[in-house]
Amino acid sequence: MLTLTGVDAGYEPGRPVLRGVDLRVAPGEVVGLSGPSGTGKTTLARVAALLLAPQRGTVEIDGVGASGVRYARDPRLRTAVGMVFQSPRRSVDARLRLRDVIAEPLRLRGLATAARAGATARTERVAELAGRVGLTADLLDRRPHEVSDGQLQRACLARSLASGPRYLVCDEMTAMLDASTTAALVGVVGAEVRAGRLGVLAISHDDALLDVWADRVVALGAAVAGPA
Amino acid sequence: MTAPALTVSDLSVRFPTGQRASRGAGSAVHAATDVSFALRPGRVLALVGESGCGKSVLAAALLRLLPADAVVTGRALLSTDGPAVDLLTAPGRVLRRTVRGRRVALVPQSAATALTPVRTVRAQLEETVGELTPGVDRRQRADELAIRVGLAPADLDRHPHELSGGMAQRVVTALALAGDPEVVLADEPTAGLDRPLVDRTLRLLREVADAGCAVLLITHDLGALQRSPGLVDDLAVMYASRLVETGPAGAVLAAPAHDYTRALLGALPAGGLVPIPGSPPALTDLPPGCAWHARRPDSGPCDGGGTVHVDGLRATRCRPPGGAPC
């Protein structure tokens, strides 16, 4: 269970964007988070993905309290939560080929282990992930400017699944994509959820999408954020 | 129905790919193939399709803004007030002096990047007004245009970074209307906007059409069209460089005739989020038959081959696999 309890979060001390948020995401569950622009959906996503420390309250993942964020995460939580961002173009290194984009987390994790043995395993793992998100082999050799937004977002989803997270935060993952790519990516995430591998926090301003995608929807600005 | 303002017939666009061995020497990107449609005053034609199907190339081809190596064939006859002009063959001078901005205007894809960040939007709008309609009171005309697109005249005194996404979208629409064009081409005007802004932008284009313009709306957002019935009149569905289905928007959305249109609607949340298997073909390597049926061999035939008129107004195009081009 990914649990946020009494979370205040923001970017300036004393001026939280979110106040008193409680949220639970269970494995095998898709929780939708909706709300108009500016209500703090992305801030909440960053707290849940251990990228932003809450100003108050706690984040707990499968019984382990999150003591640090980003590089200071508890080692037991380092790969616990993955995140897919709204703009694939702004969340990849433009110099990397897609296969290296997908392999980035594997490479980081592999630094501690034997380099040579890691390379073969990594190639196989990238091929397997690419197949899961529907990227063909020829696309893996291209760089970001040679593929469409949809193809790049597929690579970003594969990257977020590469380290085998138990929870995935999708922050407007499909906002820049056309309908068929949206349906494809939601399908990939859904397959992971059904396999029991993943609990998902799906953030979107598209209520029609969340109605279909999420098991339950929480509206930010009403139910979650408490009074000031 | 009124006479067309712009009649496009058999428009094809090819980009030679040069000598790259991986793609085959002498091959070409088939960006648009045999595209025909008409834009009529007072009507909005929406051109929909997945990313990369060639939609935006069409708008650029009609304004002759493609790179010099593009090979464009076909006709695009502008037959509004003033002399008839074939946009694809007219001399550059004629386009510059009498067509672009004056008879055919473009609403660009990304409002924020279409404006220069270092000047107020009033300066940019007044400059355009002065260029396109010399002799009028620039300030007064700019204020009128602002009001027409739903901005307060005071908003014009801001710089682009001080505007919201929706206001920037209104400014570029005002720029497009400055020369009082008869045809407005809107290239993905709603890309990257959130839902309320998408709906407002579509309503704004509807108002532009209601004032007498012929509007082409290029978009991948079929969902927005579906939830706002009446904002667009006609629909053309593009797949792999070809129009596969055309007709009145309501009729096409309610009862799509081409299997691809059905698949696109099924991929929407309202249609059940059913992914379309496979991916769109590379435009360098189109199969000889119907590109959609090469992707979905198990799908049923699209009412035979060739151009099929479902009724007087609607048409689907589908070439049987291996069949002769239609």
- What multimeric state do the chains show? heterodimer
Overall 3D shape of chain A? globular
CATH-level-2 architecture of the largest domain in chain B = 3-Layer(aba) Sandwich
- How is the main sheet of chain A built? 5 strands, parallel
Structural class of chain A: alpha/beta
Distance between the termini of chain B: 27 Å
- Overall strand count of chain A: 9
Strand order of the largest sheet of chain A: 6-7-8-3-9
N-to-C SSE series of chain B? EEEHEEHEHHHHEHEHEEHHHEE
Largest interface between protein chains, with number of residues from each side: A-B, 26 and 25 residues
Q: Given this structure, which CATH class of the largest domain in chain A is correct?
A: Alpha Beta
- Give the SSE order of chain A as H and E letters: EEEHEEEHHHHEHEHE
- Low-confidence stretches of chain A are 222-228
Quick description:
By secondary structure, chain A is an alpha/beta fold. Chain A has helices spanning 41-48, 98-110, 115-133, 137-140, 149-162, 179-194, 207-213, and strands at 2-9, 18-25, 30-34, 56-61, 64-65, 81-84, 167-171, 199-203, 216-219.
What keyword list fits this structure?
heterodimer, A: 228 residues, alpha/beta, Rossmann fold, 2 domains, 5-stranded parallel β-sheet, 4-stranded antiparallel β-sheet, 9 strands, 21% strand, B: 326 residues, 8-stranded mixed β-sheet, 12 strands, disordered C terminus
